[in-house]
Amino acid sequence: MKTMKALALMLAVLMLVSTVLAGCSKAEDNKGDDNVVKTEEKVDESTVYDAKIHDLGGHEFWFLVRDVGSFQHLTVNEIYSEEMNGEKINDAVFKRNSLLQETYNCEIREERVKNPVNSVKEQLLAGEYVYDYIYCPTTSLRTLSAQNLLVDFQGLDTVNLEKSWWDHNAITGLSIGNKAFYVTGAGSTLDERASWIMFFNKDVLIKSGIDLPYDLVKEGKWTIDKMYEIMTTTVEDLDGNGIMEIGKDRFGYIGQPENNWFHVAACNVKLSDVSSTGDIDIPPTVNKDVLNAWAALKPLLTSEFRDVGDSGKRFRSGFGTFFSCLSGAILNMNDGAFNFGVLPMPKLNEEQKEYWTSADGVWTYSYAIPVTTDNASDAEENGFSSGSNQAGYFLEAMFYHSLNTLNVAFNEQVLKYQSIKDAESVEMMEIALKNKIYDPVVLFDFGKMGAGSLFGAAGSNGGQTAGQGPLSKGSDVNYDTLVSLYESRVTAARKALNNYINYITNED
After folding, report:
1. Strand partners of residue 273
2. Whether the Cβ atoms of residue 3 and residue 407 lie closer than 8 Å to each other
3. Which top CATH class is 51-192+363-411?
4. In terms of CB atoms within 10 Å, which of 65, 75, 181, 505 comes out highest?
5. For the chain, what is the radius of gyration of the CA atoms?
6. Which residues contact 84 (CB under 8 A, 6 or more apart)?
């Protein structure tokens, strides 16, 4: 989690200062003692920014960004700021950019469009240099990488992907054919906002005499079974008519069919196997770990007390005990009136060591560099062998300087605002987002194996057939079809993956 990286960097500096001071003190105390062995603390090189400062000659770095319109909690706000306005993230971005522009003698510019990939594709095919970066959903960028229109970060001399400001889980999970076309890390907050967590209604649990689950999380006991137990004991026929109805009565859990995959991923399993060398294998049938997680989830996902929907409004209105959603949804809930808490997605069982979440395939953004940056006329005079090396160099600097600006502001806005009402939710959010799974087959939806495509279709709809009205007992008909659906799609998934690898490894 990048908010943790900023803290880790600050702690590393403090530890280093403490070590130096302690060393000075010991030197004074042991003057003349030839038997004293002097030791030096080893610095974590991954946290050290050691790139040479270059004058970039006034180069304008243009970012092409997706404009999401009314989705305020998922809008891109981490790249450009025109002026200070008192809003934490905006002001942090302004300060960071001012520092970058002054230090490197350059300018940062942004253009927002609804579909960056469609907007830029013809320019890239024509070899026209217009943008240095594209920032949009990673799944959309696959169209460009499949035509060799994006730069492989692994091949840039000016980028060190081992540094702490890059998201290593994302780079590993999104690198196919040992090529890293997409990166994220400290320069982004959307990968944090687009990861799944669990919200819960504190008042419902208090009224029911149930302890808030925070201690369960800390003790490693927040599991699928525990969530199911709580959700089935907190349902209530609010209007007393003897019929459980969506939008009128309180259900134990509100979560759309797509959530099925995020529950599976929270059990720390993947649909595909990624080797240490980056090779991806899609098994001919669903692997054992996924099936074990799917079986354990069956009572919860097929419960008659699950409202299958994506309605934060219903949750905020008191019609649900639990609600799973993107963590960014917390920005829509902090209205001061609703008494809610935050939890990680539940584990498979107590034997599972850590809590996991999955990046969302639709809303997880990455940075990409178009190959046409090599046509930038000022690249050579700025001291770089190509425009892509110049673009990589500056992105590295931007990510590093985001650690103590953007990341700190995000932490204060998203986490600490909630801590005014619920300090423990800050710790819960950090736990929930600490470990992220990036399963390439699911994220890129090869052969319709994505979260919504496969797991949404395979999972029970809980008996719901409409967004409003009575809810009948959950049906197993859809739920038990995961294996057959998988096996009907695996051939197409393997073919799509192989075709993609062939495209990006073609040297012609």
Report:
1. 281
2. yes
3. alpha beta
4. 181
5. 25
6. 90, 91, 94
Report the distance separating Cα 395 and Cα 43, nearest Å: 24
Task: For domain 196-358+445-505, give the CATH number.
Answer: 3.40.190.10
Q: Is 490 helix (H, G, I), strand (E, B) or coil?
A: helix
Distance CA(169)–CA(360), nearest Å, equals: 14
User: pLDDT at position 12, please?
Assistant: 40
Half-sphere exposure of 387 (CA within 13 A, CB side): 21
**Which residues does 90 contact at the CB level (< 8 Å), separation at least 6?**
77, 81, 84
Tell me: the pLDDT tens digits for 160-172? Answer: 999 999 999 899 8
pLDDT of residue 1: 47
Name the segment(s) of the chain with CATH classification 3.40.190.10: 51-192+363-411, 196-358+445-505
Contact 412, 459 (CB under 8 A): no
Structural contact between residues 427 and 222, judged by C-beta atoms closer than 8 angstroms: no
Q: Which tokens in the block code for residue 172?
A: 């590993």
The pair of structure tokens assigned to 368 is 């990409």
163, 174, 181: which is closest to 398 by C-alpha? 163
Residue stretches of the chain with pLDDT short of 50? 1, 3-34, 36-37, 462-469, 472-474, 508
| Angle in degrees, CA 369, 372, 373, rounded to 5 | 60
Strands (DSSP E) found in 398-447: 436-437
Q: Are 149 and 386 in contact (CB under 8 A)?
A: no
Asked if 321 and 207 count as a contact pair (C-beta separation under 8 A), the reply is no
H or E stretch at 280: strand 280-281
Distance CA 410, CA 89 (A): 6
